[in-house]
Amino acid sequence: MPNIKMLNQQGESVGDIELSEAIFGVEVNEHVVYEVVKNQLANKRQGTQSAKTRAEVRGGGKKPWRQKGTGRARQGSIRSPQWRGGGVVFAPKPRDYSYKLPKKVKRLAIKSVLTSKVNDEELIVLDALKLDDFSTKTAFGILNNVKALKKALVVIGEDDKKIAKSFGNIPGVIVATADKINVYDMLKHDSLILTKDAVEKIEEVFA
Questions:
Q1: Long-range own/partner contacts, residues 19-24 (CB < 8 A, 24 or more apart)
Q2: Which of 151, 156, 162, 187 could pair with 172 as two cysteines, CB 3.0-4.6 Å apart?
Q3: Do 126 and 8 form a contact (C-beta atoms < 8 A)?
Q4: What contacts 132, CB < 8 A, 6 or more positions away?
Q5: In whole angstroms, what is the distance from residue 63 CA to residue 76 CA?
Q6: pTM score
């Protein structure tokens, strides 16, 4: 089982924590991770792009000139795609880009990313994370103490408005609860910060 150091909010080591082999020590499956990221991005698409075909563009009912004898190419409408102001060939229309993946695939991807974070030493575990009041300065100080000043994803066991607001004010930092972590957010951030109770919750949910 992988062991890593557990830190407090001051950045001091307070012992080691043993992580579940079934979640933080699996074989990394890059293709599954790719498929889940592609799925997440597709599901986020609004699908509201729209353009008009030649049938929907106003005008163009009259043939611009006779079929033969002019020396010019035959034309049936001034709203054909080759004309300025004409319709679009195979015009994009509003559509739903979302699709579903099996739950097992999503879980394997999450386990793969968590394992890669451990392997790349980008996982930081805190014994606890508490703020007495809303304070972005305090939150920034904690990130500084644990050396996670770049993009960081902070994962806590249960929703905490003080933590969410204080850390959320820092550019490049987002806060999530353990039951709502996703592959894309974990990959996008350089550091993954988990509280001890978040680790327990993740092991409970994804074991």
A1: 19/118, 19/199, 19/203, 20/203, 20/207, 22/111, 22/207, 23/111, 23/114, 23/115, 23/202, 23/203, 23/206, 23/207, 24/111, 24/114, 24/115, 24/118, 24/123
A2: 151
A3: yes
A4: none
A5: 5
A6: 0.83
**Distance in angstroms (rounded) separating the CA atoms of residues 124 and 173:** 14
Homologous superfamily of domain range 3-45+98-206: Ribosomal protein L4/L1 (3.40.1370.10)
Give the DSSP letter string of the chain.
--EEEEE-TTS-EEEEEEPPHHHHSSPP-HHHHHHHHHHHHHHH---------TTTSS---S-SS-SSSSSSPP-S-TTSTTSTT-PPTT------------HHHHHHHHHHHHHHHHHTT-EEEES----SS--HHHHHHHHHHTT--SSEEEEESS--HHHHHHHHTSTTEEEEEGGG--HHHHHHSSEEEEEHHHHHHHHHHH-
Q: Where in the chain is the domain with CATH 3.40.1370.10?
A: 3-45+98-206
Q: Which amino acid is at 121?
A: E
Per-residue pLDDT tens for 76-109? 999 999 999 999 999 999 999 999 999 999 999 9
